[in-house]
Amino acid sequence: MYYDTFKMIDGDIYIDRKRGDLVLVSGGEELMQNIENRLSINKDEWFLNTELGLSYKDIRGKGVSDEEIGFAIRECTAQDDRIKATDIGEVERHNNRFARINIVLHDEFGNVEELKEVELG
């Protein structure tokens, strides 16, 4: 079961400055935030869960195909059991260091969410 969680912006907890309150997210917004966080963590680096995240070694380098990048992303998004399918858009590469990609997620309730221009690695 997933619960409301703190809203994050650029890795920081968001605070509503007018009210001075922490902001919570739930539902689809929480799911998208969860997936964005997973994609930003290099697998094997977070000591509390070394299986969490995206394997950066599988998406970097000259010899890595778009299909391999897509597989690594699907493997990462599947870590959240609410995701039932992941569609990968065209991979836009930059200097073999990172890629920009659109990702469409299908959740267990039939909702479709899109993460646009996600930068990987």
What does this structure look like?
Strand 8 and strand 9 (98-107) form a beta hairpin. It is globular and about 50 Å long. The chain has helices at residues 27-40, 66-77, and strands at 5-6, 8-9, 12-13, 15-16, 21-22, 24-25, 83-88, 92-94, 98-107, 112-120. The protein has 121 residues and is of the alpha+beta class. It is built from 2 helices and 10 strands, in the order E-E-E-E-E-E-H-H-E-E-E-E. Strands 7, 8, 9 and 10 form a 4-stranded antiparallel beta sheet that branches. The longest helix is centred in the N-terminal third of the chain and has 14 residues, at 27-40.
Which features would summarize this protein structure in a list?
121 residues, alpha+beta, 4-stranded antiparallel β-sheet, two-stranded antiparallel ribbon, 2 helices
Number of strands: 10
Low-confidence stretches: none
Q: How many helices?
A: 2
**Could you say which overall geometry the principal axes of the C-alpha atoms support?**
globular
**Backbone structural class:** alpha+beta
User: How far is the N terminus from the C terminus?
Assistant: 29 Å
Mean pLDDT equals 90
What's the story with the biggest beta sheet? Answer: 4 strands, antiparallel
Radius of gyration: 15 Å
How much of the polypeptide forms β-strand, as a percent range?
A: 25-35%
SSE topology string: EEEEEEHHEEEE
Please bin the fraction of helical residues.
10-25%
